Amino acid sequence: MKKFAWRGSVWILVASQVLLCAQSSPKSRNPTPTQQATAKLLAPTPPMGWNSYDSYGTTVKEADVKANALWLAHHLKRYGWQYVVIDMEWFVTNPTPSGNGKDSLYSMDENGRYIPAPNRFPSSANHAGFKPLADYIHSLGLKFGIHILKGIPKHAVEQNLPIAGSSYRAADAADLTDTCPWNPDNYGLDSSKPAAQAYYDSIAQLYARWGVDFIKVDCIASRPYDGDEIRMLRLALDKEARLIVLSLSPGEAPIEKADELRTYPQMWRISDDIWDMWHSTVDYPQGLGDQFSRAAKWAPLAEPGHWPDADMLTLGFLGPSPGWGKPRQTQFTSDEQRTLMTLWCIIRSPLMMGGNLLKLKNDTRTKYMLTNPEILNVDQHSIDNHIVISTDKLVVWTARCV
């Protein structure tokens, strides 16, 4: 049985893990040189926000996004939560919760770039794209993110559409032998062809024009890891004046690529999707208890601007159309919920809430975890995070709060 207690500045979780975060001396009123340098980075601290997939799968609509964004702005923004991320297949007009359908119908512009499905995002009509929705989210003092798949739409290649801002066409860029093993939407890009970089440049320009602040790129960090496309994406984003965080999925990303991962993206997944279970015997999904060994391996590699990502927080109500399973209150016990939040924070993982924010009104436990300033401070501002004791039944972590 796991037991949990809160004692001053010490988190204690017996039979699973123990967290110790030493109290720091009072902060100086003037930023240190390190703090000044960190402020210039993309994602100087682990990004915090909300992602639509655990509650809405690929069925999320504009009204859902706006409502969750408004709740986040009113209740969580002051604690550091700031990103609102629309997960996969926002361009599909006939979505199913889990996505990846072989009969999907797509919204696409004349240059082979996905655009929001107007039946789900009505403000995107008349070539507006996501700009009206991004403007609304920015008006709340928040930041706007989207999910994409690596590569180029198969339909764009089949029609050999022109690539915006270049003399190339879609077929010039595609690698027809490179397809995502679990999603049929795209072909990969052939990094040896100039047209491939031109295509990524074209979507980066479009997303910057829309006002996107965060891009989660899927089918790129593992099975297989695609370093060439990661590099091309970062290069394309860096050509834009707008600063855009690059997040990679799924995991586990290969640790032998740590130097590349701490160069190009701001965050990358350390596992496949984590859902609300303690242990899994299959590759997908994974459980909370499966994450401890990965956390220990990746935590020392976290640094300002580059964060190993333990996946979304499957807390609260997962519905009305979660990306896996039936609509439900999280199946984690109360101890397991606190374990998840504690482990994510001690390894300084990005924190992306997956539960439906609109259902938190009477969920005091989840609201407490999302707004507890002391545990959030461990995630956002601690250093020297590492294991000091590890046995089969007990793990002790320590970190210094700054």
Task: Kindly describe this structure.
Helix 7 (194-210) packs across helix 8 (227-238) and helix 11 (334-346) packs parallel to helix 13. The chain is an alpha/beta fold and 402 residues long. It has helices at residues 33-38, 53-56, 62-75, 131-139, 154-159, 170-173, 194-210, 227-238, 258-261, 292-298, 334-346, 364-371, 373-381; strands at 3-7, 10-14, 17-22, 48-51, 83-86, 143-149, 152-153, 174-179, 186-189, 214-218, 245-248, 267-269, 307-309, 317-318, 328-329, 351-353, 382-390, 395-401. Helix 10 (292-298) links the parallel strand 12 (267-269) and strand 13 (307-309). The relative contact order is 0.16. Residues 1-18, 23-29 and 31-39 have low confidence and may be disordered. It is globular and about 60 Å long. Helices cover 28% and strands 20% of the residues.
Helix content: 25-40%
- The value of Rg in angstroms is 21 Å
If you average the pLDDT, what whole number results?
91
**How many extended strands?**
18
**Main CATH class:** Alpha Beta
Q: Give me the side-by-side strand order of the main sheet.
A: 13-12-11-10-6-5-4-16
Query: What is the distance, rounded to the nearest whole angstrom, between the alpha carbons of the first and last residues?
Result: 33 Å
CATH architecture: Alpha-Beta Barrel
- Continuous helix count: 13
Unreliable sequence segments: 1-18, 23-29, 31-39
Count of the domains: 1
What overall geometry do the principal axes of the alpha carbons give? globular
Instruction: Sketch the major β-sheet.
Output: 8 strands, parallel
**Beta-strand proportion:** 15-25%
The CATH topology: TIM Barrel
CATH superfamily placement: Aldolase class I
Q: Which structural class matches the secondary elements?
A: alpha/beta
